[in-house]
Amino acid sequence: MRLPAFFILIIISVKAVAQKNNVIWKTKAYTIYSDSVVQGEYIAKALSATEIVSSYKSPANLFQPTKIAFKFSINGKDNEMQPGVDHHLMQ
After folding, report:
1. Using H for helix, E for strand and C for coil, what is the string for 20-89?
2. Is the Cβ–Cβ distance between 42 and 51 less than 8 Å?
3. Measured by CB atoms within 10 angstroms of the end CB, which terminus of the chain is less buried, N or C?
4. Residue 3 Cα distances to 10, 15, 19, 49, angstroms
5. CA 46 to CA 82: how far, in whole Å?
């Protein structure tokens, strides 16, 4: 007797919940666990039903400066501090 694919997915899901951190699916590129996905050096982990943390770093941010200069504006004018005097934030 062949089980429909839907029932196979349900069985896999139930096993995954019952056996936390066991491998659900593994390929050369990534591994899926019951609470996380690992792809090379990157890990995404579900902390709860609404929260995920990840170690992924976007290549778009690699060349962004770590020091940010800014000034507050009062009534749309550059009048919070003297010209050339700014707040600085290190990321």
Report:
1. CCCEEEECCCCEEECCEEEECCEEEEECCCCCEEECCCCHHHCCCCCEEEECCCECCECCCCCCCCCEEE
2. no
3. N
4. 11, 16, 22, 29
5. 47
Task: Tokens 């007797």: give the residue.
Answer: 1
* Predicted model pTM: 0.46
One digit per residue, pLDDT tens: the chain, 91 residues? 555 665 555 666 655 554 555 888 899 999 989 888 999 999 999 888 888 899 888 787 677 777 888 888 877 777 788 888 888 887 6
